[in-house]
Amino acid sequence: MPLLNRAIEMQEEVSRWRRHLHENPELMFDVHETAKFVADKLRSFGVDEVATGIGRTGVVGIIRGRHGEGQTVGLRSDMDALPLNEITGKPYASKNAGKMHACGHDGHTAMLLGAAQYLAETRNFKGSVAVIFQPAEEGGGGREMVKEGMMERFAISEVYGMHNTPGLPVGQFAIRKGPIMAATDEFNITIEGRGGHAAQPHRTIDPVVIGAQLVNALQTIVSRGTDPLDSVVLSVTKFHAGDAHNIIPQKAELAGTVRTLRSEMRDFAEKRLREVAEGVATALGAVARVDYDRNYPVTFNHDQETEFAARTAQSVAGSKAVNLEVAPMMAGEDFSYMLEARPGAFMFIGNGESASLHNPAYDFNDDVIPHGISYWVQLAESALPAAS
Fold it and tell me: CATH for 183-296, among 3.60.15.10, 3.30.70.360, 2.60.40.10, 1.40.20.10?
């Protein structure tokens, strides 16, 4: 099945929805107006059940097929924006200072709304489709929806997600089995030394010098402690110490992130980070306290569902337009929680040449809309065939 004619016809209207969302971005779980917009649209389409407040501010719509009862397949998009000031200069640029749809969640939401409208009109499947609009992809909204029992409440048997990718041409898709996005852990290290006069460093235990040593030592966890073929990233992104030119401070604080694709490497990285931080500090007469937070797990695509999603994309775009072995990304994605709860797959869709994600010059490409709608519709109808 190539692009749906109906999806092409819908592009202009869905683009207007997308630009409305882009103009009115909301952050994290505070997506009240966005969720209301979504719920109102779903009701206007005649969706059978519209549940709000799932995972605080998430929305789930249930569309029942006209060929009888069967399993329920979940299709998920995200609604939240990022804390950025937009510089695109577009006529529909953000009206909310310090908030911007710089990751394309406005496009994801609009495409899934378009698919929901089509599926509610045709209902050419057996069973039900759950269209899932989650808050706070940038802050664990997927985890909250799963914890609240969304999968059980709506009897979702498998679940699929999709994200746009700048640099991948419009009309192309990319996927892989197994790890496709990384676990995203965060750490904070406090080094407690002994402060004093900067002219008398011998009377102090300087946490700034110790912190500088530690930044270098932490890099050896990856460069000298892991197989070069294992994907591990350790980045120190904060270093705060002192307030004056002539005072050696009492403490220094470091923070950063660890990204891994395998649970064994996740365990190893946390263990070694603690050992290195505490060891360097002790060797230089200080004390280090490590707070380590395991954030999003690995986004892991299940084999059977990945093959199915890939075939679906190929039916829409052609076999040459679907990369089946895309390299994993070391960014994180909280769709990982849904894939821990149910089998499924996460797909990348091309956004064409654009600024990168999380960039103040980024904008979702509206030419992607008919491709995304066609993929979602074909996925639902193929997963829930009317003849089964």
Answer: 3.30.70.360
